[in-house]
Design brief:
The chain is of the alpha+beta class and 126 residues long. The protein has helices spanning 2-15, 24-64, 120-125; strands spanning 71-74, 79-86, 91-97, 102-107, 111-116. It has two domains: 2-62; 66-125, SH3 type barrels, CATH 2.30.30. One of its GO terms (cellular component) is plasma membrane.
């Protein structure tokens, strides 16, 4: 990898200046750099842009599929159980202490990850 970075100035030095009599020589040296620019743009998209977009899409799907009694971890590190969901106002009520019945209301965006999704069978039996 360091060799590739050291070779970049050589790419610019090889083209040189166009002679005064032929202006098209300078154009061909810039066209030689076009594949490198295209590779950099494609690399940037697939390495830097696309993975965060896919991760955010999966997160939104996970939040949309939450239901009562799912166990989650908030972005602040709070372990809780979903008590109710209000999709109209983007709120979620979480039960944080089962013994004392402590419930807290949060925005849906605080859901970090789903620990234990409930199945339809276990939700009906509870």
């Amino acid at each position: 990898m360091p060799f590739l970075l050291a070779a970049i100035p050589l790419l610019f030095a090889q083209g040189g200046a166009a002679p005064a009599g032929n202006p098209k020589e300078g154009v061909s040296s810039t066209l030689n750099l076009l594949p490198y620019v295209l590779i950099f743009v494609v690399w940037g998209y697939f390495i830097l842009i696309r993975p965060p977009q896919q991760q955010e899409k999966r997160r939104r799907q996970m939040i949309a599929s939450l239901k009562k009694n799912d166990k989650i971890i908030t972005t602040g590190g709070l372990y809780a159980t979903v008590s109710s969901i209000d999709p109209d106002q983007d709120r979620i009520v979480l039960r944080v202490d089962d013994d004392r019945g402590v419930k807290m209301t949060f925005s849906k965006s605080v859901v970090g990850r789903l620990i234990e999704p409930t199945t339809e069978k276990s939700a009906d039996s509870a």
